[in-house]
Amino acid sequence: MTVPPPPAHPPLPEGTRVVLDAGVRRYGALLVGGAPVRAVRLGAGGVRLLEGGSFALDGTAGRAGLAAQLVGAGLAAYVAEEPPPTGDDVLVVVPAHERADGVERLLTTLAGAVRVLVVDDASPDPGPLAAAAARHGADVLRLPTNLGPAGARNAGLAEARRRGATYVLFVDSDVVVTVDELHRLRAAFVDPGLAVVAPRIRGLVETGSALTRYEAVASSLDRGPRSAFVAPGTAVAYVPSAVLLARVAALGEGFAADLRVGEDVDLVWRLVGAGWRVRYDAGATARHDHRVALGAWARRRADYGGSAAVLAARHGDLVAPAVLAPLGVAQVAALLLQRPVPTAVAGGASVVVAARLARRLGGDADARRTATSLTLLATWMNVEQVATGLLRHHWPLTVVGLATSRRVRRLVAAAVVADTAAGWVRQRPAMEPATYAVLRRLDDLTYGWGVWRGAVSERSVRSLLPAWRRS
User: pTM value?
Assistant: First the structure.
């Protein structure tokens, strides 16, 4: 399936602001951040412009060029001076198979302020969905056969095109999103290269059982507290299709209708590959009715893991559970072997990499600070990759190692402690550490089981293998 490339566009209006992302770090004239992480050196004028973290376009080529460089690198985003009103240019599409109560809840929240199309994905009894839609002035498109979530969204996309909508908001029937949040998302399209923007997904209920409280901080739908551009292999590698506001012209054929899980990842990666930008806006929030029955939760986690093999067949190394460069290989070897010589080699490689990077960045004090920071970041990411591999993606192999090697047992014990502590500090769950640790390991086990099950089903180990890069 293909999506069209972004078209050429006229200059953005004067007054449009260019705002650095919160995750961008500054080292004098060097900016570090983006997706993937990169460093950009500013000229003296750029340093002055960005003293406050943002600047406004004024019609000059200099500011427009700097803006294009920063936004293209994922270091900044365009923000409209006056966000446009959300009107008939948006069609809300709600794919639903039964779940009339969820659709009723969503439509009540939207309060008739926008056009809504409920796509009935061949519910056995169409009456409840039709009645809920009628009570709130929403239209219904009933499909004669069940197409699954992706196919139902595509049917809604086709209807959006037929009605001349510029944007389509896909909202699942177990989600609540307000009109105010839609207005915020709509404002992001001041960026003509933006195809999709997605909000942060939080739980509809965040108190109660231990699993409810765990999902409140560790749901796969919640992409975190920091806005970012979305790209494979980055901190925000995908956004879920639970809520997506998309530019109709960018979507091409839409979702891969043959995928029941992972169709959102596939679409996002195809859009990014075609040159479009996809934005995660953590400042906008939607609420999702999380699965908090243990069996349903575990099955869903396994389904997410199972999508890795299918995605690997379509996107190759983008699905790899780890990405290793020469420095990463040395550091991983040091962790696995736990011997003085590999550890010394890894330490020496880190120093060499930092020195080379500092020279590439200009060799001054800012460059050395930036290179040191990036090398330390890479080291920590490699440690995280080892822990994730041992505890999540490759845990069946880890079990074998636990039974046969004291060295593996030491490494796994350290990985469990480090991973649990890092997750606890980052997520701050409202539960006892021991309960959190158990649920985190269960999360890993069910997801990893799904990855292996998918690999067997697809008869391919590609989703289990690391990707390699030269630097």
Answer: 0.93
